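Aim 2, interim progress: modelling of the zinc ion-bound target.
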Amino acid sequence: MATFLSYHDLQQQGILYSEAHALQYLINVGILRPHQYCEECQTYMELKSCPTARYSDGYNWACPDDIHLLSVRADSVLHRRKISFTSFLHLLWLFCNRISVSDAARLVSSNIKTVRTLFTSLRQCMAEDLLDNGVRRKIGGPGHIIEIDESKFGRRKYNRGRRVVGKWILGGYCRTTGECFLTECTNNKRDHHTLLRLIKQNVLPGTIILTDKWKGYNSLSHHGFIHLVVNHRQGFVDPLTGVHTNTCEGMWFHAKKHMRQGHGRTRVDSTAVSIALCEFVWLKKFGLTRSDSSIRQMFNRDIPQLMSRVFS
Ligand SMILES: [Zn+2]
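Predicted structure of the complex, ligand included:
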């Protein structure tokens, strides 16, 4: 069983200042592969110190008679990255603290491009972790209540007025489990066909869905969902049914804040947006907030576990 250490413990035990100790720690927690199997020799490889310069990490995986060699970074997020193990641990801590790429690069005296690709890879791992055999895992199901709403992400035009230029995002929050989904509206449309298709992709049949009166949601009850509506013109909670989508409103606030912080300028490129949305959903799924204990838990446990899941 892996022993996860806090950043403070890593500092105290000198692990943050020794490449050999950092390597051992990364193996222990599963960020680097704990073992490698050689298909050709049909045997497990051994971790050996590597005095030659072939692998600059000082260690490599080797078959018993040293025929086949493999980097300790193989099949991991550190594969072919020019980052020392100690710098990686520092960067991971900064990532968990949602420090921007440029600040993180400055703090560890690293190349900004190297840090950007690392942070992007960590977020891609989160996106991948939300998939089930390559398909987005659906939320909800019979007995589950999900609030669904669309919101436009972007800036107010010319920084004033009500007109917002940006992307329509469809989101849902499951009151039963606290899980959510966020997805870009195809071609930036929020018509009936687009919304229905996206909801079917993200929500299991039988779910109780709460929405506002937007006509795009009209036919949900004909497609296997139980659909309840709140009329926002008559206040935020329907006086008759008590239906509301307030939790979804709260989610928009946090998601937009998330997109503004740690992701630099408002990105228009689609991949960056969808990865940032996935990161938000992943953090929410694991109950991670901006609190100190969440940041510690993400660094000590949730990211290492994520890495061993994604690279297993
Ligand atoms: Zn071999």
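Residues 45 and 65 are 10 Å apart (CA to CA). The chain has two domains: 7-33+72-129+292-310, 139-285.
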